[in-house]
Records
---
Amino acid sequence: MSLADRLSAEIAARRDDLVELCQDLIKIPTLNPPGENYREICDYLDRRLLKSGFHTELIRAKGALGDSDRYPRWNIVARKEGPRGGECVHFNSHIDIVEVGRGWTTDPFGGEVIDGKVYGRGACDMKGGLAASIVAAEAFIAICPDFAGAIEISGTADEESGGFGGVAYLAEKGYFNPEKVHHVIIPEPLGHDRICLGHRGVWWAEIETYGEIAHGSMPFLGDCAVRHMGAVVSEMERSLFPALALKRTDMPVVPEGAKQSTMNINSIHGGEAEQDPDYTGLPSPCVPDSCRMVIDRRFLIEEDIDEVQEEIHGLLRHVQSERENFTFNVRELQRVLPTMTEKSAPVVQSVARAISDIMGKEADYVVSPGTYDQKHIDRIGRLKNCIAYGPGILDLAHKPDEYVGIDEMVQSAQVMARSLLDLLDGREN
């Protein structure tokens, strides 16, 4: 049996361990926001990876966006040095999950196995991928102990809310320095036979319209900021959304609808703040003097960020020219430029060969509709040799009854291990 076949067989033999690891991770409810149980999951990973011979570091992103004493942003970085010099392959997975939401028919933190799938919040996004990367690394070390270079595994905070307390913080501290880390695989759920080269860009902004407070029985004495925002939404429907639908990209973005520019109205809040759930009274009768909208604009590699912003500013100026007493402010919340790794990059070539060997088919190349932590590895770490590859179906992310297929996890782990064999010069035990 060849070394590559032995490696695949070793991972197949660890199938039950892979499932149990995925289940254990799901059972730790790392909800973000606010950022719960980050230390608990890092401690769990610490115990696991120390047993596997990794040197581990637990790193709090002190002072990063979102970090607080109540909800500290903990991360773990583990490194295993081979006996011979060589390059470093880093597997990065985020440990946080989004809110559960309604509509579940399974326990969102139960990790139940049903019909060959592990169910739970974070199963595919991305605790299944984290589990697969750990088992892949452990199997590779067992079969190829004389490998050249190093393997790193990280579990990082806050990807679901921008990654500033996770990968961004670590990149700023040099953990993704290209002189130290050479290949990065992020096991996001883009499909176990697909290589994700990058993602679209994003511009988040808050638009605020202003009015004048007055008694609700005499609204003519005030100026309703919510009505002003209604005019903004109306103009977006009339002119902006149709224009965005006409912008198309040559990036291999999936799904098909994301090949165009898009914008989501993330939230609108106007007037009196919502009271605590235990408040049983009525609101006060006031004309709202402020209304805030958060927009989430996703843009293409063919678009310029300045033009993206000007679309919104131009729309608001147009509304202002047609509406009396219309005043507004725009505050940028986040900007991320599109990124796309070249198909010729070493990590792309290695994973593509592994997919072909394991699955007997050519890899598909895709681009993610939303950003993920590759943005920080690229922008801050200046490391271009980075992809997303992992088990799971992207459409299930953030949905009720989220799951990851067990066979997909096994095959993904085999692909990851085969890539390690290629990149780190594994030898016969």
---
Amino acid sequence: MREPNDLSAFWMPFSNNRGFKQAPRLLAAAEGMHYTSSDGRSILDATAGLWCVNAGHCRTQIVEAIRETAARFDFGPTFQLGHPLAFELASKLGMIMPEGLDRIFFTNSGSESVDTALKIALAYQRARGQGSRTRFIGRERGYHGVGFGGISVGGIVGNRRQYGTMLGGVDHLRHTHDLARNAFSRGQPAHGAELAEDIERLVALHGADTIAAVIVEPVAGSTGVLVPPVGYLERVRELCKKHDILLIFDEVITAFGRVGKATASERFGVTPDIITMAKGLTNAAVPMGAVAAGRHVYDTVVENAPEGIELFHGYTYSGHPLAAAAGLATLAIYEEERLFEKAITLEAYWADAVHAMKDLPHVIDCRNIGLVAGIEMEARAGAPTKRAMEAFHRAFDSGLLIRVTGDIIALSPPLILEKTHIDEMFGRLADILKAID
């Protein structure tokens, strides 16, 4: 007979279940910049949980908003009905999105946001009489969640290998990661804008009148913090406009201050037609995602539909009251504490700390933008990912939470951090890297 909590029942996501359950590392509480492990140790959070706790852990303002709402209004459907919190949050989100992208569709995760954006793109093309535009263009090394649409436009083979046939009619741009020319770039790398010309190649191959949308992460996060080359996003925007193709920015990671602005679109000065978001929207206190669509997209779908439902899509929990309350409280904290501006203020100090890792053993690249960083290590011969995973385990055991993807350490701390936290993070990380063979 199993023990009540022997760890076997929970099939953990994106995890080595066998390895973890032999040597579990458990988190039990969180506050501010720190977790507390199940054995009572303080763990400095260098990853904002999973790119998502941008305002720090267990913020009283968010907790109280959730508690008060749960006691008063636990759930209200948004199919042919509504409640004020969802409309208020949509309005406030629209105000911080790029101009014109103020039609907000709520989801429950980044994966749902991506699949929603893809469906909106198809509905838009059909509504304007371009029903032949059904093809999507993603990018190698792109991560767009784990729905079938997201893994199809994504560019991570491991996320697709087990699942057979993907969404049809998908092609991919080349990724922009170029260690030979761009290693140890501070901010945007100098080389690679020409890779945007892949859009022209795919237009020539498939025909512009078959392509509904191009989807890219402005900064590719989950595959190791791949910062866009200077001029790359601008050229992607130009080519999509030239060929009348919708441009979707997946900002599930980059929205809400991670790169120093409300969106990466604002940071880089490039406005897409649709933005997906999640993570920092509610500071991860309650699951929630959203899609911000341009008015031209919304109006085309809605105004050209027959009377009744215009978009046959949605989720039971779209705009859930507790998530909306958490979102409103989170946006208030961002504004009151000027956390987006703080990310810009700390960016140079952060960059100096990142690039101080350059000469440590096995480090082959350091890269940064805003308050996010990637430190890439040379893979062990015949054992890719093992060196980074050892760093992950050593870091946790020494009181530091990092994230690893492949042989890349990805850092994305809560935006409430101070210079002393940066010093502590990179001091501990340096010691760890020196100790790994």
